[in-house]
């Protein structure tokens, strides 16, 4: 299960609700929200400041590159 914490970190939990992955974002939002953009970028942003991302998946490329990802 994927969860967004009150501080704005994304976490993946196993069946026992143990954390198996954490975004470890150093930036926090007052009212964090998660959004999957049309580009495929999964972002965490503050609902009060939608221009600045607190965390974005494009900063962490995997085995598939999409336009706009950082290398």
UniProtKB/TrEMBL annotation:
Keyword Transferase included in the entry's annotation: yes
Gene3D superfamilies in alphabetical order: Bulb-type lectin domain (2.90.10.10)
The organism of origin for this protein: Trifolium pratense
Keywords in alphabetical order: Disulfide bond, Glycoprotein, Kinase, Serine/threonine-protein kinase, Signal, Transferase
Domain Bulb-type lectin: 1-57
Top-rank taxon: Eukaryota
Molecular function terms from GO: protein serine/threonine kinase activity
Pfam families, per the entry: B_lectin
InterPro entries: Bulb-type_lectin_dom (IPR001480), Bulb-type_lectin_dom_sf (IPR036426)
Entries under SUPFAM superfamilies matching the protein: alpha-D-mannose-specific plant lectins
Protein name: Serine/threonine protein kinase
Phylogenetic placement of the source organism: Eukaryota, Viridiplantae, Streptophyta, Embryophyta, Tracheophyta
